[in-house]
Known about the structure:
Helix 1 links the parallel strand 1 (3-7) and strand 2. The protein is built from 15 helices and 14 strands. Strands 3-2-1-4-5-8-9 form a seven-stranded parallel sheet. It has a five-stranded parallel sheet with strand order 11-10-12-13-14, with helices on both faces. It has a two-stranded antiparallel sheet with strand order 6-7. It is an alpha/beta fold. Helix 1 (13-23) packs across helix 15 (351-362) and helix 3 (87-100) runs parallel beside helix 6 (153-164). The mean pLDDT is 95. It has helices spanning 13-23, 51-65, 87-100, 113-120, 140-149, 153-164, 173-179, 221-224, 226-239, 254-261, 278-285, 296-302, 317-329, 331-348, 351-362, and strands spanning 3-7, 27-32, 44-45, 74-77, 103-108, 131-132, 135-136, 167-170, 187-189, 210-216, 244-250, 266-269, 289-292, 311-312. The chain is globular.
Amino acid sequence: xxxxxxxxxxxxxxxxxxxxxxxxxxxxxxxxxxxxxxxxxxxxxxxxxxxxxxxxxxxxxxxxxxxxxxxxxxxxxxxxxxxxxxxxxxxxxxxxxxxxxxxxxxxxxxxxxxxxxxxxxxxxxxxxxxxxxxxxxxxxxxxxxxxxxxxxxxxxxxxxxxxxxxxxxxxxxxxxxxxxxxxxxxxxxxxxxxxxxxxxxxxxxxxxxxxxxxxxxxxxxxxxxxxxxxxxxxxxxxxxxxxxxxxxxxxxxxxxxxxxxxxxxxxxxxxxxxxxxxxxxxxxxxxxxxxxxxxxxxxxxxxxxxxxxxxxxxxxxxxxxxxxxxxxxxxxxxxxxxxxxxxxxxxxxxxxxxxxxxxxxxx
Length: 363
């Protein structure tokens, strides 16, 4: 069995993958900061405290850790910016890991140069974090990310690692479509792993009133479309008093987020996405219907021909309102979609079967 090191964390991907790989007998270590305030589990905790002193302490701990990060069969970094330091300081750390381990992989799981550049230039997606059709988005977050990743050390780091590493792992259709044309031989699509505790035969019918849930990160609300989804949900609640209620979770740790989500019927998440994210997948595993990204392209990449559990919406307030109105007025459809959501997760994202696919790719 293999010795695997997973560095960094996004929305519990590495922590859940580690559990799946361990169940197969692999020796797995997760090093991360817990994805900041979300505080996901990890084996080695590496958190940067604020201020100059915090930066010095972080670097000191990182360099003390490096000798322990040798001799792995596989090292996977979550993103080119897999540490809380500047890009030019990450490069020598990456080269060290490259020298002292057998295989290096890079995750295409979120913000990076190829994601920004493809959406801005080639526009392979009808809509994204950076474009709506041929029109580029100009909101503050989109412009900040374009500036941050174009013609900078971050771009240079990303391009270096992408060229140098043994494999690039894309977790969503939209990331896969940005990397695959550049690196067709080394880009692989791998579904995110999810721990499933619900079963399709124990799905509760839709509640009355219908329970909507939305997670809000105020710092990224406009960029991710949460502002639009929240306005739409609030209008539907106001239009149907006594028929629907809305629960809001604002920047809370993962454990609390899960508790607040439990018992919901519908989650609103990722307006500009083609594919459900980890939060959506977690909700679906609990029998919660996702209103968000579920375009046909992502089903095709999964090879799914039958199930369509995600209520796919266009990135407009009107589209979200129409979708929610239908769910409020058709509770039997909600119950069916809840059952299909669990079936979809069991078929494509169950953490042990997904970990087996990742292990096969690694080896």
